[in-house]
Design brief:
CATH superfamily of the largest domain: SPOUT methyltransferase, trefoil knot domain
Shape: elongated
Strand content: 5-15%
Structural class: alpha/beta
CATH topology of the largest domain: Alpha/beta knot
Number of strands: 7
Distance between the termini: 77 Å
Number of helices: 10
Radius of gyration: 28 Å
Length: about 260
């Protein structure tokens, strides 16, 4: 097998940042190029980029894998081949096997979240971690499972526990991203300036005046309570200046009606 790259040296723009050190995915004897590509896509979606492929049935490189990867070419370009699982895992410090048959092994069984958190601790210490995934039809052989330090078991519906290799990769890759501190990007509010207090209060006065003209505040003694509730509701919305202008236009249209053509 070609010499593995050190995980900490992988660099790629991700949301104007870089890929961080992450576990590797080791695919054992994958049968379909499409599944390899789907795994690569899932990996890069969640900040993983190191892929090892053990004895792929249809050879390598694989055009179907490239097509299915949908742009995750970095993962496929860097993918390493190995003739056996033992050789594929030789450079790793910690290996976890994903399998639907955890009862057949005496190894510790972890949920994907527990596994990701454990690998995060090890990765931060500089250890190289790998996640082992087996062939599509049979899953990992017992000998390959026993090369791992633990088993990752996805808590699926026991009456229908069928996940393909790419689906399993998505689950563990997502949990890795969460363990590594990933979070949704904040909404882009650069062009949406918040309304000033003057704009907000002007809108509220406009609204209350129009409601009073429509005799909404009835009986009159309830007016202070209703005004407070309405104002609080709009205050929680954190309106922008554009939204305030839109709402004042709505009030004006309701009060004056549509102009005649």
């Amino acid at each position: 097998m070609t010499k593995p790259q050190k995980q900490g040296k992988l660099r790629l723009a991700r949301d104007k940042g870089e890929l961080r050190p992450a576990p590797s995915i080791v695919l054992v004897e994958p049968q379909l190029g499409e599944n390899i590509g789907a795994v690569a896509r899932a990996m890069l979606n969640f900040g993983m980029s190191d892929l090892v492929i053990v004895n792929p049935r249809d050879g390598w490189p694989n055009e179907k894998a490239v097509a299915m990867a949908s742009g995750a070419s970095l993962v496929l370009d860097r993918a390493r081949l190995a003739p056996t699982t033992a050789e594929a895992l030789g450079a790793f410090h910690h290996v976890l096997a994903m399998t639907a048959r955890p009862r057949e092994s005496l190894l510790p069984v972890l949920t994907p979240r527990e596994a990701a958190e454990a690998m995060k601790l090890r990765t931060d210490r500089g250890e190289r971690c790998a996640i082992l995934l087996g062939p599509e039809r049979t899953g990992l052989a017992n000998d390959d499972v026993n090369r791992a330090s633990g088993v990752i078991s996805i808590p699926v519906n026991p009456a229908f526990a069928s996940l393909n290799v790419a689906q399993a990769a998505v689950v563990i890759a997502y949990e890795w991203a969460i363990a590594d501190g990933a979070a949704p990007a904040p909404a882009d509010l650069v062009s949406a300036a918040p309304a000033t207090r003057e704009q907000f209060e002007g809108f509220i006065e406009h609204l209350f005046g129009s409601l009073a003209d429509a005799r909404y505040f009835y009986p009159e003694e309830r007016r202070p309570v209703l005004e407070r509730k309405i104002k609080t509701a709009f205050a929680r919305a954190s309106l922008t200046d554009g939204e305030v202008r839109t709402l004042r236009g709505v009030i004006k249209s309701l009060v004056q009606g549509r102009p005649e053509d």
